[in-house]
Every structure is written in structure tokens, then in C-alpha cells.
């Protein structure tokens, strides 16, 4: 592995960091309630929410458990549970 | 090569050289005695003689940062400063060197406050000696021109990639007039080439400049700069040689020597003082004194082996410093002593402080230095630093 | 549970922002608007630190961090470098810096960039203190807020003087596009980023980005608090073009208490009688903003 000249690094290498390991709580989406408005995805600081056909889905690899999605969901489709691991 | 010779102000000679090397971005903040350079460049840009982004900076910190950003974006960048301005650029130049951005910078040497003064000495560029930036110290207006033409190639070399400061004494070189030969624009542009950056800020290949790092790589990054400065030595040698081949001028590469072969006293110095010393050496030689001169041209990379070789068998080496590390002594002297330490050649090294804050160093002073150095050699023990021309009446 | 192997977001996940970071929300939205043909410049600060660990950068656009005090000058230099080669691709230069690097140590360079009228969009994410270094006061820290260098001790009620008015400073420089925006209104934020980029010359956008660690609230309340800052009138959402106010988001004003009380950095103001003056001053500031920008929705 060489030393990048001048400390200049490649783009996007953060994607390998599993920030999901930071979690104390995890958001849980009740897809039945989800109206796919996209607000959770818009407000997520870590780009963890993906709005799929059947509702919002959390990317647990990166999710830090801030729970902004839970707070901002207009239909209370998101709840929290303690992160066991 | 034939050029046009005219009586030019040192600043004008620099401006002509820089213009012909076609920098893409120039940013300057005025400070005496650098102002004539930037005024000449501003006129060249306004009149269309130089196509360059000429950016007025709000401070030297910003001027250095502007050329830093330009260089990172892949442009050939240039700035100039002196004294307080160089100190203000200090933080930026550290980062510039360690981010490996090859900016060329003219440092018009001027003493540092306080007291505030516009007189010349080398304290300003000495205070940047640890940054990793290269330094070429010139002795004449012609050399100021020549060195700038050489600088872009040296700094931008893929193995070097370091900022380069061309240092010239304020007033003595910047504002004095001498015949200077200016070479044809096309030839100079061809010699300087164009900047092809190893990497740059470019949306088609996004990179992150200025990441933060830990103990795993910090020492390694510093070591990489040590390697780069060693490579710079070869580059400086080859570029100055090529310059002589193309244009006919040679002012030394890492150093230059005058009458050192059988010298009993060798004077080591930098900057405009060197041309005074040459004249003094010639006069002393005509009187039968065996004196020689080693001109340290590149303070960084410091020519350790070359100085030792140039001093040869000379029993006495007198180092003339136009800078001071308070409590320690002359900075050039410290580097010279350090170079000789532990080697087989052990001349008596006598340090002199000469010309701080513009105190005159003329041929009479040089001859006095030779006499003092010769006498010091006969004594034993450490050689105290000699302060030339100090008005001791203030201290009785 | 999927690691992203391709670029889906120009501000990549895996960055090291605190959970619930307001700045991280802002930057994600900003980059969604700027697109990839952008070079971003940042000073030292939270954003720089959480996005650029060695070999762990979360920037998917070219990005440069130099020092703390020179982001505006670096941006000028980058743009000059692009322009010297013609900038045929029309690459935009956007600077994103925190309040420390903008209001304080970067003020000189910012003023220079404004004065030169360089075509750069400068976005300040304002978390109202030097958060990266551990919550020390900056000139953006508001009156009455507690930080480690504006501590609440004895008669000291935290920051003893009000925050600098950066909008006024930008307007004093005749910056053609000056606006505030909020993570609470993502659509408006993106629209303003677009306007700032498209407008020739310099542009300045100030965004209040609540910091749960520094202000003392639960991470989940970040966006709600940003909303409250607006609805109290303390952080008006306004827009100026060539010095003229062209838009101001109307609000149904709520008392500042709704914004201040949930934050630990203001708790002390409710615990001592003689700090009531400070609460009054804060409410007065909110009222002044409401009047100045005519923020109150018309009562029907």
C-alpha cells in the first residue's frame, strides 16, 4: 500500500465504515402504516432510508440510531427498540 | 542564446521572468520591498502581455491560500512577499509543502519587526526553513531573472512537487539597477514548459485534499518530503545545467565557488553579500591572501556534502549570517557546523553575524572578517559568534 | 444491512458525524442540489473532521480542506485556477464552513472574497459554537447560551454579548444573493442553493444547524428544534437579491421559551431570577425580527 502524495485521498472511502455499530436504539418501520412520503429519507443525516415499493427501509449498516426519522414521520410509522447487539 | 540586455531594476527582471513563464494564476498582497514586482505584473496583465488570472488578495495569508487553491486545481501559480508577509504565509506554506503543491514564490528578503524596518536581512526566509519549501538565494539581478525561469520546472517536477522560494535581498537586488539580459519569450516559455499536475481537483476524478491523519502516517509524510528534497538536488543540478546549455548563464546549482582550491580561509554566505565577497576575494587574492568563497545558493535543500567538498583542505571556514536564532546564533552557521560534524574534515568554523537589519557589509567588512577568522583559528576552543559592526557603546 | 459499493449519494454514508447531526443533514441536501460538477471547499471544523479521516473520505465530489482561516481564499484560488483554463465544463465552486471558520477566524478572507465579487457560493452551517473542539463560544454563539468558554458561573449567564449579524455583513459587501435556509425546509434549502449557484458573483447562505451534543437535546429533536428556531422568529428565513428583501417565510410566532427550554445550554436562564433580563432580551430580538421582516402571518 503506498502513501498517497500530499495526503490526497480517494473519494467515498467512508462507505466501508459500519457506523451502524454506534447504535443504542434502532428505528423500526411499520410498513403497513408507511405512506411513502419520503420525509424520513429526506431528513436522515446518514442517507440510511430507502423508500421501497412496500415502504421505507432502514440501512442498518450505517444507521446510527438518531431516531430523527421516528420523530419526523407524519403517521408515526416508525418506533424504536433497544439495539441488542 | 542572444537576449536583450538593458539596465533593469531587479524587480523588473523578476517580473519579466515570471511573465515569460506564463503562470496561470498570480495573487499578491503588497509589502515593501516587493511592490514593484507586483506592479509590473499587474501592468503586464492589464496590457495583455501576460494572460493570467491576477487576483488581488486581502492579506498575505489569503494570497498564499489563493495560489494554494489554484495549484490544487491544476494551475501554475505564483506569488511574492517579504518580511511580515512571509511570516503571515508561514502556516499556509507548511500546508502547501506537505500537500505537495508546487507554487513559485518570490521572497524579497527584509528584516522582521520589531522594530519595524524595511531594511534587508534573511530572517524572514529563515523562519520558513522548516516548512519543506525549497529556497534559492540569488546574488544579482541577472540571477534573479535566471532563477525564476528555472524555478517552475524544478518545483513542478513529479518527483519534487514542492513550493519553491526564490530569495533576493530587498533594495540591494529588488530596487537596484544593473544590466540584465532578458531572453526571448518563446525560448523561456519552452524552457519553463507547462504544468502537468500529478493530481488535481477535478469532478471527473474526485479527490479529497486535506484529510486528517494519525500517528500511523505523519512521520511517513515528513519522511516523504525529505526524499523529495533530496530528489530536488538532482533536479536543480540538471535544470541549471540545461539553463546554461540553452541560455549561456550559470549562477551555480546548489552552490557556487570562487577561488576555493587552495584557500586557507573560506567564506560561506548567501544572497547579495556574495557579490561583495567576490570582489573582496579578488582584491585579497591580488594581495597574496589565500581566500575563497562558497556561495550557498540553495538553502533548502541544504548542500551538506557539496560545502564540505568545496571547503576542501581549508583550515578556516568563516560563515556570514544575515539571520539570527536568538540565544543560539547565526542560522547558516548552525547548518554549516552541523554538516561538518563527525566528518573527516574538521576546519575551524568561525561564525559571523553580518548585515542584520541592513547593517552595511562592504569589502572592508569582508576583509576584517577574514582577519578575525584567521586570528580565531590560532586560539583553541569554541569560536564565539562575532557581530560585525555592532555599536558596543550601547552596552557598556 | 448493506454496505454501499457504488455512489448513491454525493455525501456518502459512513461519515463520522454525531448521530442526529444537523450539519450532516444540511450537507446531504446541499450536495443533492449542487450535483457532481462541483468543487467543495471547507475550513477546519466539524464538517471537515467528520467527512475526511485519512482513507475514509465521505466526499464524492472533489473537496479541499486547507486551514481554518482560509476557505474563502482557497475557493477564490480554485476558481481562478479553473478560469485560467477556461472552465469549459462550468464547474461550480462552493464553500461550506462552520460558524467558527466563517464568523471568526475566516472573517478576513470571507470579506476579501465578497469584495472581489468572486463567483462562489459560500454556505455557513451555524451550530453556534466551536463544536468540533468541544463546545467553545464563537462570535455566533447567541446571547445567554452556555459554552465552555462562556460558562454559566456566578453572575455570568453564558455568552454575555449577542451574536454577530453575518447577514448584515454580507449585505454590507453588496453580495448579490444573501439568504438564510434551514434543514427544517429541505425544499426551500435546495432552491436557495440552486439560486446561489446560478446567480453570478458571490452568494451567501446561512443555515442554522442544531447540534444535539453542544446544545444539549436528544438527537431525534434536531429538525424540530430547527423548526422552532424559525417559528419563534429567532432564525428568520429570508432572502435578499441585490440588497432587497425578496422573500420571508411567514410564521405563527411562538414564545422563545418553546425553543430555549428544551436546550441544556439555556436551562440556567430559567433557574435564576436575575437572568430574566436575558430571557427578555432574547424575546425582544425575536420580536424585532418578526417586525423587521414582517414575519407574522396575517390574522384573519
Features:
heterotrimer; A: 85 residues; alpha+beta; Alpha-Beta Plaits; two-stranded antiparallel ribbon; elongated; C: 300 residues; alpha/beta; Rossmann fold; eight-stranded mixed β-sheet; 35% helix
The CA-CA distance between the termini of chain A, in Å, is 33 Å
Main sheet of chain C? Answer: 8 strands, mixed
Amount of helix of chain A: 10-25%
CATH superfamily of chain C: Thiamin diphosphate (ThDP)-binding fold, Pyr/PP domains
Order of helices and strands of chain A: EEHEEHE
How large a portion of the residues of chain A is in β-strands, by DSSP E? Answer: 15-25%
Coarse structural class of chain A = alpha+beta
Number of domains of chain C: 1
| Shape by Cα distribution of chain A | elongated
CATH class of chain A: Alpha Beta
Rg of chain C, Å, rounded: 19 Å
Description:
The complex is a heterotrimer of chains A (85), B (396) and C (300). Chain A contains 2 helices and 5 strands. In chain A, the strands form 2 sheets. Chain A has a two-stranded antiparallel sheet with strand order 2-5. Chain A has one domain: Alpha-Beta Plaits (2-Layer Sandwich). In chain A, 47% of the residues are buried. Chain A starts with 8 loop residues before the first strand and ends with a strand. Chain B is of the alpha/beta class and 396 residues long. Chain B folds into 2 domains: 244 residues, Rossmann fold; 141 residues, 3-Layer(aba) Sandwich (Rossmann fold). Chain B has 12 helices and 16 strands. In chain B, helix 1 packs parallel to helix 6, helix 9 packs across helix 12 and helix 10 packs across helix 11. Chain C has 300 residues and is an alpha/beta fold. Chain C has 11 helices and 8 strands. An 8-stranded mixed sheet of chain C has the order 2-1-3-4-6-5-7-8, with helices on both faces. The chains are: A alpha+beta (85), B alpha/beta (396), C alpha/beta (300). At the B-C interface, strand 3, helix 3, helix 4 and strand 9 of B face strand 1, strand 2, helix 3 and helix 5 of C. Strand 9 of chain B pairs parallel with strand 2 of chain C, so a sheet runs across the interface.
Amino acid at each position: 500500500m503506498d502513501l498517497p502524495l500530499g495526503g490526497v485521498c480517494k473519494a467515498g472511502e467512508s462507505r466501508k465504515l459500519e457506523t451502524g455499530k454506534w447504535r443504542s436504539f434502532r428505528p423500526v418501520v411499520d410498513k403497513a402504516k408507511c405512506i411513502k412520503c419520503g420525509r424520513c429519507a429526506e431528513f436522515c443525516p446518514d442517507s440510511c432510508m430507502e423508500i421501497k415499493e412496500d415502504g421505507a427501509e432502514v440501512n442498518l449498516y450505517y444507521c446510527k440510531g438518531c431516531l430523527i426519522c421516528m420523530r419526523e414521520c407524519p403517521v408515526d410509522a416508525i418506533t424504536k427498540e433497544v439495539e441488542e447487539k | 542564446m542572444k537576449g536583450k540586455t538593458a539596465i533593469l531594476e531587479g524587480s523588473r527582471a523578476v517580473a519579466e521572468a515570471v511573465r515569460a513563464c506564463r503562470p496561470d494564476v498570480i495573487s499578491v498582497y503588497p509589502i515593501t520591498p516587493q511592490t514593484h514586482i507586483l506592479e509590473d505584473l499587474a501592468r503586464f496583465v492589464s496590457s495583455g502581455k501576460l494572460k493570467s488570472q491576477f487576483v488581488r488578495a486581502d492579506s498575505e495569508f489569503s494570497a498564499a491560500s489563493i495560489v494554494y487553491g489554484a495549484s490544487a486545481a491544476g494551475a501554475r501559480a505564483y506569488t511574492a512577499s517579504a518580511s511580515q508577509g512571509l511570516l503571515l504565509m508561514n502556516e499556509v506554506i507548511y500546508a502547501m509543502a506537505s500537500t505537495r503543491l508546487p507554487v513559485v514564490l518570490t521572497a524579497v528578503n527584509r528584516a522582521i519587526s520589531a522594530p519595524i524596518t524595511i531594511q534587508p536581512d534573511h530572517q524572514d526566509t529563515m523562519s520558513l526553513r522548516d516548512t519543506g519549501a525549497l529556497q534559492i538565494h540569488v546574488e544579482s539581478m541577472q540571477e534573479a531573472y535566471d532563477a525564476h525561469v528555472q524555478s517552475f520546472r524544478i518545483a513542478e517536477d513529479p518527483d519534487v512537487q514542492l513550493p519553491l522560494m526564490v530569495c533576493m535581498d530587498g533594495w540591494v537586488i529588488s530596487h537596484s539597477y544593473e544590466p540584465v539580459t532578458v531572453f526571448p519569450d518563446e525560448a523561456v516559455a519552452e524552457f519553463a514548459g507547462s504544468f502537468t499536475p500529478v493530481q488535481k481537483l477535478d469532478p471527473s476524478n474526485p479527490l479529497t485534499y486535506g484529510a486528517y491523519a494519525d500517528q500511523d502516517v505523519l512521520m511517513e509524510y515528513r519522511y516523504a518530503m525529505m526524499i523529495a528534497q533530496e530528489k530536488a538536488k538532482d533536479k536543480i543540478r540538471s535544470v541549471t545545467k540545461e539553463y546554461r546549455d540553452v541560455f549561456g548563464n550559470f549562477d551555480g546549482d546548489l552552490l557556487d565557488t570562487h577561488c576555493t582550491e587552495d584557500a586557507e580561509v573560506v567564506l560561506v554566505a548567501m544572497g547579495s553579500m556574495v557579490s561583495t565577497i567576490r570582489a573582496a576575494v579578488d582584491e585579497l587574492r591580488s594581495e597574496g591572501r589565500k581566500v575563497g568563497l562558497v556561495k550557498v545558493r540553495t538553502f533548502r535543500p541544504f548542500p551538506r556534502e557539496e560545502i564540505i567538498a568545496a571547503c576542501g583542505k581549508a583550515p578556516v571556514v568563516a560563515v556570514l549570517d544575515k539571520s539570527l536564532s536568538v540565544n543560539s546564533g547565526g542560522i547558516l552557521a548552525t547548518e554549516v557546523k552541523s554538516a561538518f560534524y563527525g566528518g573527516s574534515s574538521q576546519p575551524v568554523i568561525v561564525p559571523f553575524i553580518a548585515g542584520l537589519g541592513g547593517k552595511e557589509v562592504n569589502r572592508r567588512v569582508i576583509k576584517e572578517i577574514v582577519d578575525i577568522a584567521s586570528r580565531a583559528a590560532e586560539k583553541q576552543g569554541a569560536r564565539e559568534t562575532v557581530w560585525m559592526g555592532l555599536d558596543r557603546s550601547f552596552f557598556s | 444491512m448493506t454496505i454501499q459499493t457504488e455512489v448513491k449519494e454525493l455525501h456518502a454514508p459512513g461519515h463520522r458525524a454525531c448521530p442526529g447531526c444537523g450539519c450532516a443533514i444540511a450537507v446531504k441536501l446541499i450536495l443533492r442540489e449542487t450535483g457532481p460538477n462541483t468543487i467543495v471547499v471547507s475550513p477546519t471544523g466539524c464538517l471537515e473532521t467528520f467527512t475526511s479521516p485519512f482513507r475514509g473520505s465521505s466526499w464524492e465530489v472533489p473537496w479541499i480542506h486547507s486551514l481554518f482561516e482560509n476557505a474563502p481564499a482557497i475557493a477564490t484560488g480554485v476558481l481562478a485556477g479553473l478560469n485560467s483554463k477556461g472552465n469549459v465544463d462550468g464547474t461550480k465552486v462552493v464553500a461550506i464552513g462552520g460558524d467558527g471558520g466563517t464568523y471568526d477566524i475566516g472573517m478576513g478572507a470571507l470579506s476579501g472574497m465578497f469584495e472581489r465579487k468572486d463567483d462562489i457560493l459560500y454556505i455557513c452551517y451555524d451550530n453556534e459554537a466551536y463544536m468540533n473542539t468541544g463546545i467553545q463560544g464563537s462570535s455566533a454563539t447567541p446571547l445567554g447560551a452556555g459554552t465552555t468558554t462562556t460558562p454559566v458561573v456566578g453572575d455570568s449567564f453564558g455568552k454575555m454579548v449577542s451574536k454577530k449579524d453575518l447577514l448584515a455583513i454580507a449585505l454590507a459587501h453588496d453580495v448579490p444573493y444573501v439568504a438564510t435556509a434551514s434543514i427544517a425546509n429541505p425544499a426551500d434549502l435546495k432552491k436557495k442553493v440552486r439560486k446561489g449557484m446560478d446567480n453570478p458573483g458571490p452568494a451567501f447562505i446561512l443555515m442554522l444547524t442544531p447540534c444535539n451534543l453542544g446544545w444539549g437535546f436528544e438527537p431525534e429533536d434536531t429538525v424540530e428544534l430547527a423548526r422552532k428556531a424559525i417559528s419563534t422568529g429567532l432564525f428568520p428565513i429570508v432572502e435578499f437579491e441585490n440588497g432587497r428583501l425578496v422573500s420571508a417565510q411567514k410564521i405563527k410566532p411562538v414564545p422563545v421559551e418553546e425553543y430555549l427550554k428544551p436546550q441544556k445550554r439555556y436551562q440556567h436562564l430559567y433557574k435564576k431570577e436575575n437572568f430574566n433580563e436575558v430571557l427578555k432580551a432574547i424575546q425582544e430580538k425575536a420580536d424585532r425580527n418578526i417586525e423587521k421582516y414582517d414575519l407574522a402571518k396575517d390574522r384573519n
